[in-house]
Write a structure and sequence with these properties.
By secondary structure, the protein is an all-alpha fold. Helices cover about 75% and strands about 0% of the residues. The longest helix has about 55 residues, at about 50-100. One of its GO terms (cellular component) is membrane.
């Protein structure tokens, strides 16, 4: 594989952290957390309060879905890192066994 053991563990750590953080952010966006309203890509001009609420609710849902999809991608990347770790360990084990047989 492409990654060595240190790189694989680092990628696994980053992936685990990203999955946790993005899942929590997605949950908070689904709950329409007011602390995250600055992070919404909203236009600055609205004609009424109802117009703002409608656009904000839709945007909260879109951003939450994006967070969950990105968390899923990081989860796949973490699984790939686990595969690299297992392959590296098997490679080291084979090398150790071949050196012991000589």
């Amino acid at each position: 594989m492409v990654c060595g053991p240190k790189c694989s563990f680092f990628c696994l750590f980053i992936s685990a952290w990203a999955v946790i953080q993005l899942t929590l952010m997605g949950i908070f966006f689904l709950l329409n957390s007011m602390a995250l309203i600055d992070d919404l890509p909203l236009t600055p001009i609205f004609h009424s309060l109802e117009d703002f609420r409608t656009h904000a609710d839709v945007t909260y849902q879109v951003v939450a879905i994006r967070c969950f999809v990105t968390a899923l991608l990081y989860l796949c990347f973490g699984i790939l890192s686990i595969c690299c770790i297992k392959r590296n360990r098997a490679k080291e084990r084979r090398a150790l066994e071949s050196s012991l047989q000589r």
